[in-house]
Prior knowledge:
The structure holds two protein chains of two kinds. By secondary structure, chain A is mainly α. In chain A, α2 (34-54) packs antiparallel against α3 (60-84). The relative contact order of chain A is 0.12. Chain A is 78% helix and 0% strand. Chain A has four helices and no strands. Among the domains of chain B are: 57-125; 148-268, Alpha-Beta Plaits, CATH 3.30.70.1880. Chain B has a five-stranded antiparallel beta sheet. Chain B has a three-stranded antiparallel beta sheet with strand order 4-5-6, with helices on one face. In chain B, β4 (205-208) and β5 form a beta hairpin. In chain B, α7 (234-240) packs across α8 (242-254). The longest helix of chain B has 69 residues, at 57-125. The N and C termini of chain B lie far apart (109 Å). The chains are: A mainly alpha, B alpha+beta. Chain A binds chain B through residues 5, 8-21, 24-25, 27, 32, 35-36, 38-39, 42, 45-46, 48-49, 51-52, 55-68, 97, 100-101, 104-105, 108, and chain B through 31, 34-35, 38-40, 42-44, 46-47, 52-53, 55-57, 59-74, 76-77.
Amino acid sequence: MGEGDLVIPLIGLLAGIVVGLVLEPSIPLVLQPYLPIAIVAAMDAIFGGFRAYLEGSFSDRVFVVSFVSNVLISATIVYVGDQIGVGSQLSTGVVVVLAIRIFTNVAAIRRVLFHA
Amino acid sequence: MTLPPESRAPSATPAPPRQSSRPVDASMDLLLQVLRVPVDPDYAVVAARGDAGPRRHWALAGVALAVGALFSVAALQTTRAAPDLQSERRELITRVQAAETEQDQLRSRATVLSDDITTLRAAALGDDASSQTLQRRVNQLAPLVGDTAVHGPGVQIVVDDAAAGTDERDRVLDLDLQILANGLWQSGAEAVAVNGHRLSNLTAIRNAGDAITVDYRSLTRPYRVEAIGDPRTLPAALAESSAGAWWHDLASNRGMRFEVGPVDDLALPADPGLMLRWAKGTS
């Protein structure tokens, strides 16, 4: 994967932000509690992918699969938790685990980029 | 027993103490895994296989699109929800204030009506002996239970939160006022009011949110507790009671304000909420 390949996801990201801002899709009330969790899971997949990219082992397929499954699994965990009455505790757990991973990955990325 | 020389050779050099050979505590396994395998292991698997397969730019672009949309939608939602929450809060505050105003009006109406009752009762009872006996009993009991406004000598106690305290425990609680009021009754007070709210045996002093309420009306600091009673003995009796000890402790350890002073003539209003809902007189 060459340097030029970064352009496509970046354009996609900007287009997504624009689409979200312009269209202002209203999230159904049922799904609203899962949006923040889904975003944290997405951030985990993104930083994981970026670290893999820096380590030279990036693969589009793995990234897409890990992104989709991360978002779905975390939302499902919280949904199941909501149904059995431990939703807030479970979402705390999911956020803690994902935050630890994000932190570790960002630290590794920083070490590779800045050699510090 | 002597070991063969070759097997003894490594131990001849002083090896540094090694801890890593100890098994990792099993309960830490989950956390360690989270820390040590932060990247999806599939990246390594696919990379080791060498061939990453055909490029999937469209999938990557789609995911990037989804990520961007997720972020912007979430940010929009949060910023849009903020003014809604604000306005809801403001509306609730307005409703609370309106309800308090209405309650004030109803209370003053209740006071007027109970004055009417007193006048009408006096008129209806007439002049005969049994009526006068009844009237005397009414006159005697009404101030006692808090049904009429009373005045007389007594003490005024001003209590307040500690001045410098930001600590939750430096604040006056409903319990503290309850203890003080009970201590005043115990010390011989005949009528007690907190911030102008007369206490009867149906009065509730409780916390509601951040404020202390008396008869469901929230109080503002400082709290002024007035008690009618013998101004010479009441302060001493209060100081000796358990309520006095409690408040002495609060004042000296927490720095709360606690000032007791005699007053020549206190005027305490009637408790307008006083009525019997279920009990009926037997005579």
